[in-house]
Amino acid sequence: MPRRRIGFWYRFAAVIAKPPLVVLLKRDWRGMEHIPAEGGFITVVNHNSHVDPFAYGHFQYNTGRVPRFLAKSGLFKKGFIGSVMRGTGQIPVYRESTDALSAFRAAIDAVERGECVAFYPEGTITRDRNGWPMTGKTGAARVALKTKCPVIPVAQWGANELLPPYAKKPDLLPRKTHHVLAGPPVDLSRFYGKEMTAEVLKEATEVIMAAITRQLEEIRGERAPETPYDPKRERIEQRRRTEAQKQGRVAAVEVSRDAAGPSGRDAAGEPGRETAGQAGGEEGLGK
């Protein structure tokens, strides 16, 4: 199966992006031998900085197998950036719309044509406070099980030191090192032939994320947490904490009102003192 030609737009993007990347980041790139020379495959990569798609793209470009990233559809509408995204063959992701599955169909088609598709399974920059990979979304597993293509786990570290997650300004000095370690293909053969239920996709995704995490452990020389950060679980816990706080404030106001009596006077017949919540007006109820 032929490999995808790099083409004008990718070369043009490289001319623009590579010089600043070379100036800003030293390189420690390992595992290029695991990138298939021919045929379709996917790479699964951790995400810890707004800069790392460019830094990782530089690594992959130098292997000769340029990736097609899944990217937010809005980027394709941004003038020059949109032209580059379309020209380099990136895949738009239409979230929460009737076109939401079109990205997966496009990814499958690309792999079957012999191209490389790059996935950030976390779906966004990690929210783990120490930069470890979070739980992943199932898109990469879905494409991998559908096509039975090689799945190459790739970990990266260092772009997040140049531009920390959600930071507004880069930390330019001293010059940072971009570490990349690509590993051998993830073995997903145990899932082949099974119906792609939510549970199967979840288990396959866990195998993929574990492989990425092992690569990052080798780069960093330390162990990741036993349980990865789960943003969905965190959102549920946050809602529970918020609801408990609201209920606690309402209960406190009701107790204060009961203590003041029905006429608003205390047991001695004097006007009841304002509670902290009443004195603060609506702010006492959490606004």
UniProtKB/TrEMBL annotation:
<dbReference type="GO" id="GO:0003841">
    <property type="term" value="F:1-acylglycerol-3-phosphate O-acyltransferase activity"/>
</dbReference>
<protein>
    <submittedName>
        <fullName>1-acyl-sn-glycerol-3-phosphate acyltransferase</fullName>
    </submittedName>
</protein>
<dbReference type="InterPro" id="IPR002123">
    <property type="entry name" value="Plipid/glycerol_acylTrfase"/>
</dbReference>
<dbReference type="GO" id="GO:0006654">
    <property type="term" value="P:phosphatidic acid biosynthetic process"/>
</dbReference>
<keyword id="KW-0012">Acyltransferase</keyword>
<dbReference type="GO" id="GO:0005886">
    <property type="term" value="C:plasma membrane"/>
</dbReference>
<feature type="compositionally biased region" description="Gly residues">
    <location>
        <begin position="278"/>
        <end position="287"/>
    </location>
</feature>
<feature type="region of interest" description="Disordered">
    <location>
        <begin position="219"/>
        <end position="287"/>
    </location>
</feature>
<dbReference type="Pfam" id="PF01553">
    <property type="entry name" value="Acyltransferase"/>
</dbReference>
<feature type="compositionally biased region" description="Basic and acidic residues">
    <location>
        <begin position="219"/>
        <end position="246"/>
    </location>
</feature>
<keyword id="KW-0808">Transferase</keyword>
<feature type="domain" description="Phospholipid/glycerol acyltransferase">
    <location>
        <begin position="41"/>
        <end position="159"/>
    </location>
</feature>
